[in-house]
Specification:
This protein is of the alpha/beta class. It is about 40% helix and about 15% strand. The chain has a domain of about 70 residues. β4, α5 and β5 form a beta-alpha-beta unit. α3 packs parallel to α5.
Length: about 120
């Protein structure tokens, strides 16, 4: 089971390793474009403490959101946690991003817990 948007070549790499795959797409990733005002309301105009980045697309979208002039202050001190180095690299400046030691949700949540 997988999403429509996924890492390019994933099935081909598995097939090249002798693993036969039949991908069954069960969900899609759809970008939403909230206005600055809508984001401020949803966040109660309060700073965001932490963001978990599960995909490169999410990192890119989050960076764009955090970079909006009206919203910058909300994300100024936000701690970023990425599922992998590849995902962190999509943000660009990986220096301040904590990267899970393995690409699993348990590892990512462990980083979040350890940072409290």
């Amino acid at each position: 089971l997988c999403g429509r948007v996924r890492f390019p070549g994933f099935e081909e790499r598995l097939l090249a390793s002798g693993v036969h795959v039949r991908a069954v797409e069960t969900y899609d990733t759809v970008a939403l474009d909230y206005s600055d005002e809508a984001v401020l309301v949803r966040l109660s105009a309060r700073p965001v403490e932490a963001v978990l980045l599960y995909s490169a697309k999410a990192a890119t979208a989050m960076q764009a959101l955090a970079g909006r002039p009206v919203l910058r202050d909300l994300f100024q001190d936000t701690r970023l946690f990425a599922l992998s180095g590849r995902i962190a690299a999509a943000w660009g400046d990986v220096a301040g991003i904590r990267i899970a030691p393995e690409p699993s949700e348990d590892a990512l949540l462990g980083l979040l817990q350890a940072s409290r």
